[in-house]
Amino acid sequence: MRTSKTRMHQIIYALALVAPLTVWAQNPASPSGTPASPPAGGMSRDTTGTGTGELSSHDRKFVKEAAIGGMYEVEAGQLALKNASSDEVKQMAQHIVDDHTQANEKLKSIAQAKGLTDIPTELDSKHQKELDKLGKLSGPDFDRKYSSMMVSDHKKDIKAFEKEAKSGSDPEIKQFAADAVPTLKGHLSMAQNAKRAASGHSGTHTSALDNGDASQSTEQRSNRDSTVQGENTQVNPPETGK
C-alpha cells in the first residue's frame, strides 16, 4: 500500500509541473510577459515609411498641381527658345527651363519617398491646349503672348507655393514650397520686364504710325488754312469811275 501511495504522489507532482507548460504553449507570452493579443480588427498597423495615407489632401493636391505646372513651364520655355524673337524673352525662358527642371526632379523624388504613385507625367488638357495655341505663334507676337502668360502663371504659382509653405502639413513638402518661392519671384520679375519690353516694341510701332498720320493731317490742315487765308487777303482792283 505504501508503494502505491508513493507512486500516486509522484504522478500528481508530475502533472503539477506539466500543466503550466501546456497553458503557456496554447497562449504564448509577449516579451513583456503578458499574453500576446491580436491587433484590433485583425490587421497590423504599418508604422514604417511615410505613405500616401499620412499626407493631407491639401498636400497631395499641391504636389499634383505643382508637378503639372512645372512641366508646363518647362515645355512653354522650350517653345520660347525656338519661337521668340527677343533675346530678353529667350534668356528668361532659359532660366525658367533650368530652374523648373531642377524643381520638378526634386518634387518627384519627394513624392516617391512619400509613396505617391499617381504623380502626373504629362500635361492635362487645359495646359496642353494653351501650349498648342502658343506654339502657333512666333516673333513679336510670341514674345508678347509668352511673357504675358508667364506673368499670370507665376503670380498664381507664388500664391499657391506661399500657401503650402504656410499651411501645409508635411514638413518636407512645406520646405520644398518655401525654397521655391524666391525663384518664382525672380521669374515673375523677369517676365514683367519682358512683357513691358514686348509691349513697348508694339507700342512704338503703333505710335510711329499714329505720329505719321498726325503729321500728315497737320500738313494738310496747314495747306488748307493757307489757301483760305490767301483767298481772303486778295486785294480787289480799284473801282473805276463811271
Which properties best describe this structure?
242 residues, 6 helices, mainly alpha, elongated
Structure summary:
This protein is an all-alpha fold and 242 residues long. It is built from 6 helices and no strands.
Description:
It is a single chain. By secondary structure, the protein is mostly helical. Helices cover 75% and strands 0% of the residues. It is built from six helices and no strands. It has helices at 2-26, 57-83, 87-113, 125-135, 139-167, 171-232. Helix 2 packs antiparallel against helix 5 and helix 5 (139-167) runs antiparallel to helix 6 (171-232). The longest helix has 62 residues, at 171-232. It is elongated, with a radius of gyration of 41 Å. The termini are far apart. The model is unreliable at 29-50 and 203-221 (pLDDT under 50).
% residues in beta strands = under 5%
Summarize the amount of helix as a percent range: over 70%
How many strand elements? Answer: 0
Low-confidence stretches: 29-50, 203-221
Euclidean distance between termini CA atoms: 194 Å
Report on the biggest sheet: none
Structural class: mainly alpha
The chain-level mean pLDDT equals 77
Q: What is the CA-based Rg, rounded?
A: 41 Å
Helix-strand string: HHHHHH
Q: Report the total helices.
A: 6
Shape annotation: elongated
